[in-house]
Amino acid sequence: MQQLWSDIDCFIEKHLTPQDPALSYAIENTEQQGFPEHLAVAPNQGMLLQMLIQMNACKRILEVGTFAAYSTMWLARALPEDGYVLTIEAREKHANLAQQHIDFAKKEYPATIELKLGNAVEILKMLPEDTEAFDFIFIDADKQSYPEYLDLSLKLSHSGTVIVLDNVIRAGDILDLDNHKPSIEGIRETYTRLQNHPRILSCTALQTIGSKGHDGFAIAIVK
Fold first, then answer.
1. What pLDDT does residue 158 have?
2. DSSP H stretches of helix in 56-110
3. pTM for this one?
4. What is the pLDDT of residue 43?
5. DSSP 115
6. In the chain, which end has fewer C-beta atoms inside a 10 angstrom radius, N or C?
7. Contact between residue 139 and residue 163 where contact means Cβ atoms under 8 Å apart
8. Who's near 213: CB < 8 A, 6+ residues apart?
9. What angle, rounded to 10 degrees, do the helices at 21-32 and 92-105 form?
10. Could you give the number of structural domains in the chain?
11. Within 13 Å, how many C-alpha atoms sit on residue 160's CB side?
12. What is the rounded distance in angstroms from the CA atom of residue 90 to the CA atom of residue 211?
């Protein structure tokens, strides 16, 4: 089934994914430098992120977990000239790779992209109190920290902010109560916090199958 899923994703990409120099450079340079491509979102998933941003006319975006900045490219390409992306990456080697792609994207996108290296929890807590709220937040980092990322994201949100959390199905491992990996426990706790949260207007999660296997994402709208 995995081959079929991957072939269908390729079919979708061929017909519906735009040719974009910054996206292409990020993919090619990541591969050339020996980094695993599977850590990035699939192109059709990137397009979904772009569409959510466009539908909500977002201008300020927070991304937790940059890797090679491929998803960052999708976020930035949806923004107007006065748009802003803050993306946070914990691993220096990933941040160095991402910065190459961000520097290249300056020729393609008008929005400002700022990359911060370090622990996302610490960076978010250190943001000035008068930091303007974000319109869209994409969380795709270490899963054990998702509950804290969610709490901090809500503090940096306004009514109508869209929050997307990637990789929240993990091929069904969330249902295996004997699986106590920190990443799986973190995702389970995230579901618990999302459930009937007083700051969330509505929320759901969707399973996905494709070139990235069986996983899914949660999406929430802030009240």
1. 98
2. 70-77, 92-105
3. 0.97
4. 95
5. E
6. N
7. yes
8. 2, 5, 171
9. 150
10. 1
11. 9
12. 25
Calpha distance 97→100 (Å, rounded): 5
Residue 177's φ and ψ, nearest 5 degrees, are -70, -10
| Other beta carbons within 10 Å of 185 | 16
- Determine the straight-line distance between the first and last CA of the chain, rounded to whole angstroms: 39
Strand partners, 206: 217
Q: What is the CATH number of the domain that holds 13?
A: 3.40.50.150
- What is the amino acid identity at position 92? E
Beta bridge partners of 134: 157
CA distance 113 to 166: 21
Name the token pair of 178: 């004997």
Rounded distance between C-alpha atoms, residue 74 and residue 109, angstroms: 10
Mean pLDDT, all residues of the chain: 97
Q: pLDDT per residue over 86-142, tens digit each? A: 999 999 999 999 999 999 999 999 999 999 999 999 999 999 999 999 999 999 999
How many residues belong to the chain?
223
For residue 88, which amino acid is it?
A: I
Give the pLDDT confidence score for residue 48 in this predicted structure. 97
Residue 37 is predicted with a pLDDT of 77
- ∠ CA(170), CA(171), CA(173), 5° rounding? 65
**68 within 8 A of 94, measured Cβ to Cβ:** yes
Helix ranges (H only) for the chain are 2-16, 21-32, 43-55, 70-77, 92-105, 120-126, 146-155, 182-194
